[in-house]
Specification:
CATH topology of the largest domain: Rna Polymerase Sigma Factor, Chain: A
Organism: Dyadobacter luticola
Helix content: over 70%
Strand content: under 5%
InterPro entries: RNA_pol_sigma-70-like (IPR039425), RNA_pol_sigma-70_dom (IPR014284), RNA_pol_sigma70_r2 (IPR007627), RNA_pol_sigma_r2 (IPR013325), RNA_pol_sigma_r3/r4-like (IPR013324), WH-like_DNA-bd_sf (IPR036388)
CATH architecture of the largest domain: Orthogonal Bundle
Protein name: Sigma-70 family RNA polymerase sigma factor
Number of domains: 2
CATH superfamily of the largest domain: RNA polymerase sigma factor, region 2, helix turn helix motif
Radius of gyration: 18 Å
CATH class of the largest domain: Mainly Alpha
Number of helices: 11
Keywords: DNA-binding, Sigma factor, Transcription, Transcription regulation
Domain RNA polymerase sigma-70 region: 36-101
Mean pLDDT: 77
Largest sheet: none
Distance between the termini: 44 Å
Low-confidence stretches: 105-125, 129-141
Oligomer: single chain
């Protein structure tokens, strides 16, 4: 995909990702940020297309996410760039879908895709043993989605990412380990602890 090749000639340096992150935080060199982002642009595009189901919009999202990194990486210390970027890209796409819900479904997008966020919430609630009758009343209430999103943000990074990948993207333990860079033996613990803490948070907010 030609549009992905926007940073020509920047990948020849021998700096590690950690070095690039530290140097970018120090001097704000966009070339360093481009060198960090370039290897993952296809991953970001594929993830965006999975959610948005529109080629041009997914291409735009790749660039919008890069623009977001310009400021975000100056304010956040990131240990695992790939897993952090995956989470940023996914959240960006979910926000795009939420915006669509407010203005209607654009041409070319499958009708069922509009409810992806609600369906994802349903999967998590079902795995928390919520009664189906209660769940059906909750799925289409915006405040339920808002509470879940806020509670997800309270989880530690490892738990949040593991829960999102397992329940929302239906990844297996091994896939989560590869995507997030977690030790395989710790993935199950991150998911279980994340689900428990998410349930506690939502119960405190009166959502389940």
């Amino acid at each position: 995909m030609k549009f992905l090749k926007i940073f020509p000639g920047i990948m020849k340096d021998a700096l590690s990702e950690g070095d690039k992150l530290r140097l970018y935080r120090k001097n704000g060199d966009i070339g360093l940020l481009g060198a960090l982002y370039q290897p993952y642009m296809e991953m970001v595009y594929a993830l965006c297309f999975k959610y948005l189901r529109a080629e041009e919009e997914s291409k735009d999202a790749v660039m919008q996410i890069f623009e977001k990194l310009v400021s975000d990486l100056k304010n956040h210390e990131v240990d695992n760039f790939k897993s952090w970027l995956h989470s940023v890209a996914r959240n960006h796409c979910l926000m795009q879908l939420r915006s669509r819900q407010a203005v209607g479904l654009p041409a070319g997008l499958p009708a069922g895709h509009l409810l992806v966020a609600a369906e994802d919430v349903g999967e998590i609630f079902q795995n928390m043993s919520v009664e189906p009758d209660d769940l059906s009343d909750k799925l289409f209430k915006d405040n339920q989605l808002n509470v879940m999103e806020k509670c997800l943000e309270t989880l530690v990074h490892e738990q949040k990412l593991a829960v999102e990948l397992f329940y929302k993207e239906e990844k297996c333990y091994k896939e989560i380990s590869v995507i997030a860079g977690f030790e395989l033996g710790k993935v199950k613990s991150y998911i279980q602890n994340g689900k428990r803490n998410l349930k506690i948070c939502m119960e405190k907010n009166g959502s389940i």
